[in-house]
Amino acid sequence: MRIKLNSIMVEDQTRALKFYTEVLGFKKKSDFPVGEYRWITVVSPEGPDDLELVLEPNANPAAKTFQQAMFAQNIPLTAFEVSDLKAEFARLKEHQVAFTQEPTPMGPVMIAVFSDTCGNLIQLYQPL
């Protein structure tokens, strides 16, 4: 058994695909219609056969309530590892990404948190 897919709820799948590929730098792996929505996954160019992130439409009222509560409490929905957090922070700031937390040492890691423009806070971390 292995983890192959992880989902993140997004307000608008087209906008999310644009942000996750053009700003964050992930690569689109799957994109096909499923009813009124699409099955969209993105992967890291550093591990295209590793974990796929599913950009799930946020049509479920329970999921939307959960997403909004997490955002309101400043709690990231997921985290991505980077090798140089300060460089990634600077790169994303050039793309006008809004951070809620700048790079901050937290024990064995340095973390930063940004809004993905799709209703979620995402944590970046660098093991120290």
Itemize the secondary structure elements and their pairings:
Layout: E1 5-10, H1 13-23, E2 27-34, E3 37-43, E4 52-57, H2 61-72, E5 78-81, H3 85-94, E6 99-106, E7 109-115, E8 121-127
Parallel strand pairs: 1-4, 5-8
Antiparallel strand pairs: 2-3, 3-4, 6-7, 7-8
Question: Can you characterise this structure?
Answer:
- Residues 2-127 form the VOC domain.
- This protein has helices at residues 13-23, 61-72, 85-94, and strands at 5-10, 27-34, 37-43, 52-57, 78-81, 99-106, 109-115, 121-127.
- It has a 4-stranded mixed beta sheet with strand order 1-4-3-2. A 4-stranded mixed beta sheet has the order 5-8-7-6.
- The longest helix is centred in the middle third of the chain and has 12 residues, at 61-72.
- The protein is built from 3 helices and 8 strands.
- With 128 residues, the protein is of the alpha/beta class.
- The model has no long low-confidence stretch (mean pLDDT 96).
